[in-house]
């Protein structure tokens, strides 16, 4: 998958084993699990929405480079020692969880962010827009 990545002027394209709908379903699964873990209650889709984002190394590289220049450390290693982080399997997965904002970092490469927001018209539209973007951007090839 990573080896298939190619940069284009406005985006990075790569072959993925799943499509956008499956990716969003997986992100919702992660979000519901983390929400339950944090709040000891099941996620209620009648009261809340999830705004989900996906980023890979090509997308986050400029942030990582700037962080290293400014702090002289690796942002992922710093995230591992943050009091809001949980490290799984020696850093294969880092879960940052503060309030109802979650970030999952897999192998210092793939980042999934999930914001749990009160359900209202504005937040629902934002969540649906982000999901539609993933449906369009992630197509099985």
Fold and architecture overview:
There is one protein chain. The protein has 141 residues and is an alpha+beta fold. It has 4 helices and 7 strands. It has helices spanning 20-39, 57-71, 75-80, 121-137; strands at residues 6-8, 11-13, 48-55, 85-88, 93-98, 101-106, 110-118. The strands form 2 sheets. It has a 5-stranded antiparallel β-sheet. The longest helix is centred in the N-terminal third of the chain and has 20 residues, at 20-39. The mean pLDDT is 90.
Low-confidence stretches: none
Mean pLDDT: 90
Major β-sheet profile: 5 strands, antiparallel
Number of helices: 4
Q: Helices and strands: which structural class?
A: alpha+beta
Separation, N- and C-terminal Cα atoms = 11 Å
Order of helices and strands: EEHEHHEEEEH
Shape, principal axes of CA atoms: globular
Which radius of gyration do the C-alpha atoms yield?
16 Å
Strand content: 25-35%
**Quaternary status:** single chain
Tell me the total number of β-strands: 7
Q: Name the helicity range.
A: 40-55%
Can you list the strand order of the major beta sheet?
A: 3-7-6-5-4
Topology, please?
Blueprint: E1 6-8, E2 11-13, H1 20-39, E3 48-55, H2 57-71, H3 75-80, E4 85-88, E5 93-98, E6 101-106, E7 110-118, H4 121-137
Antiparallel strand pairs: 1-2, 3-7, 4-5, 5-6, 6-7
Helix pairs in contact: 1-4
